[in-house]
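Section 3.1: Structural characterization of target chains.
Under the original work plan, the team committed to producing a structural model for every single-chain target entering the pipeline before any wet-lab resources were allocated. The record below documents one such target. The sequence was received from the expression subgroup and is listed exactly as submitted; it comprises 588 residues.
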Amino acid sequence: MGVGLWRFTLSAFAGVFVFFLGFCSSEKAPNYSFMHQATTAPAIAYYDYIIVGGGTAGCPLAATLSQNYSVLLLERGGAPYGNPNITDMGAFGAPFADVSPSSPAQRFVSEDGVINSRARVLGGGSCLNAGFYTRAAADYVEAVGWDSGMVKESYEWVEKVVAFEPPMLQWQSAVKDGLLEVGVVPYNGFTYDHIYGTKVGGSIFDRDGHRHTAADLLQYANPTGLTLLLHATVHKIIFRRKGVVRPVAHGVIFRDALGHKHKAYLKRGSKTKSSEIILSAGALGSPQTLMLSGVGPAQHLKAHNITLVLDQPMVGQRMSDNPMNAIYVPSPVPVEVSLIQVVGITHFGSYIEAASGENFAGGSSQRDFGMFSPKIGQLATVPPKERTPEAIAKAIDSMSKLEETAFRGGFILEKIMGPVSTGHLELRNRNPNDNPSVTFNYFKEPEDVQRCVQGMQIIEKIIDSKAFSKFKYDYLTVPALINMTLNFPVNLLPKHDNASGSLEQYCKDTVMTIWHYHGGCQVGTVVDHDYKVIGVDALRVIDGSTFNYSPGTNPQATVMMLGRVHGIKDSDGETWKRFVQVDGDVGL
């Protein structure tokens, strides 16, 4: 059995990592009377606020602002409700074989060679992640100058709808006990708070395994104050430049699913003193939209024949993605299907998490490893030019012959905090539907490499711990498991022969994303401490692109909180003054 297990484990590793990008939805679509297809929109309309992006920040922001103002929320994707593949935790993998324009996950490959994805669905990244819900650390909140009371109130507002305590079954319990056994202490029990030691965090999956997302926060909205348009792709922001000291954002141009052009403008003489356009299009979408609208590095915009509105060289700069590395552990006994539930928060800057299950192949009898499937050309064991139809066909045939036990097991991963390493984003063309070019420079800085090495060392100890022994074959040593992992096509980077003997090289060769990329519109360089775009008026950015480093172990809770807080801010200026206390140049 040992040789066979070795063979099929390499392929099973593909299916395991698909879990991160499952669909979102609760089983029944809410009765959102304000939700419409963009094809129904008038050619021209006027609103107090226009929000570009119905994602993790945009939904709570729109729900809050709609209580007092007329709000237009523009989402380039569709609704997360009603798709048979998005109902529960067992339906992972399907989005990656789906490369159609209607897929909720839009694949891209960074210039580093790491396969990645961005959301294209109402609810944004909360529809595509592993569901782990945890708040930012108290020292993070203090460093950025936020009022802790307002932060707490906003988190709780979110948690009433989307956060749950996960069931702790065998695999996750073994990882928890293993973390404690190897010294990641104390045990902090179930908590949303970011605390050193080992804890059980929240989940946006309920006890029935149904996902709840930022889109569900729209149940807080005032139906008469909100207009939500789906399949509405914003092409540019319109600026007024005559008769003003500096450019003023006053409208957007968007196209519907049929390609018809629409314009939406801010109301003049609105009851709010500061009607605004707010970008909440994510870490790729927000800097991309700014550039397409003429706000960005002058020479880069000139190269794409984009009329310059403001030379802002920092748009698209300091892009970061928290690298993830893992070891797959085949199990001699069945394990539960679980996503991220337990986390070990270390003092050296690495977070240890785990997932498991027998159903990583997409919840169907078809052998398909989703985004890692050779069916869509993912065959990274050979260089790109060698990915011939013959090589792909051979890989598909091999996967079709795998035993069911290939999917029995799970993996233990580490994600580093920060990170310190940064890159940049550039336009490829002027089509907002196309992905920009992104470089993250994973592990460029030695500090990031060292954190990964220390995290991997903790994982090795957990695998060899007494608490975890039930889920590990005795004859498979940690070095053997590392060698298995090295032989799997995790990314498009070339492998090094010495990687199995060097954790430093192992980190670099097996790097993956955990979909926590951020930056491109950071506080202090592109936006000020009120999140207003520096150098123009009536334009704000509220999403993960403003982060200087990722909050907590997983950012989605903080992104949703941020949307809520900014909605309160624009509804109640005094509340906002209490929330933001500008202190130096420390941004999000």
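Confidence is low (pLDDT under 50) at residues 1-27, 359-387, 574-588.
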